[in-house]
Amino acid sequence: MENNIIAVDFDGTLCENKYPEIGEPNMELIDFLMNCQLNGDKVILWTCRNEEQTKAAVNWCSEKGLVFDAVNENLPEIITEFGGDTRKIFANIYIDDRNVSLYSCREKTSMDLWAENEVELACEHEKSGDDGDGFSEYGCACYRSALKAFNSLMEDRHSGIGITKNILNRLIAGKPLTPIVDTDDIWDAGGSFEKNGEKSIQCKRMSSLFKHIKEDGSISYNDVTRAVCVSINNQNNTYHSGLIDRIMDEMFPITMPYMPSTKPFYVYCEDFLYDTENGDFDTVGVFYVITPNGEKVKINRFFAEKDNKFEEIDIFKYDARKEAAEQLKKANVQRGAGE
To answer: Which one Pfam family would you cite for this protein (predicted)?
Structure first.
């Protein structure tokens, strides 16, 4: 990859704008530029400060660890390439608090105006419901961030905005853009561990994907974000379960190459407590799953906890445990009402 030349402003950019004084440092940007230099990029200070003020700025940056490759002048290799010096500082990237995007310099389309109006209406709606918890301000910031992303897509001015949206959705969801293939270079992202003779290795391209190697050499894969449990008694209640992961891996085993969907498997379950010695719940019913493509698949499997593990039981035992749990619940309610 070619290295970049970065021209960066000082007041309002590398530091808070307190001109002619020097404001508080923007350490996030300073650290970013220092890392860029470590990767081979070159950084030019590009400022309107006079000679003495510029020296103070250079010294101030040096104290923070940022040493410039040039100050208000082109790099020697650029002068050589252009056959002479130029008044404009050449750079691949310009960082300045007064930057104006190309998007803002073109005539807005009806789609641009519609999106801006929708965001403003949404922000007004947030503010009208403000109860003093600060959520309206946070909500408006989220809407405006979405508008920036929308504007960026519109600025590209190509007809593939729908395709771009799908690509962006995959990136936001943490899903790879191309199928994952089982090659040695994609495993062990710092998440390798062994248990009961089985080695599990994390995928570098997708942190939720693991490869499991048993002692006999057999291999399986597990994506811990693939399944979402949904309570059949309250569909707003969703959660994750290792038991459900295992069932999905049995029913829909992951094979390579693997191209995960942006939609999960929604697994509809019920859990309750049969024995009060077992904590929150000790009995689970797994009724059906809605696959990422919208297909409903019956499961009807039932489990009870024994020795800190879930063992499969039949529906008759499940129903008996459920009835006993409901009777216990009623008795507790009546006892509480009588006290």
So the answer is: Tad3
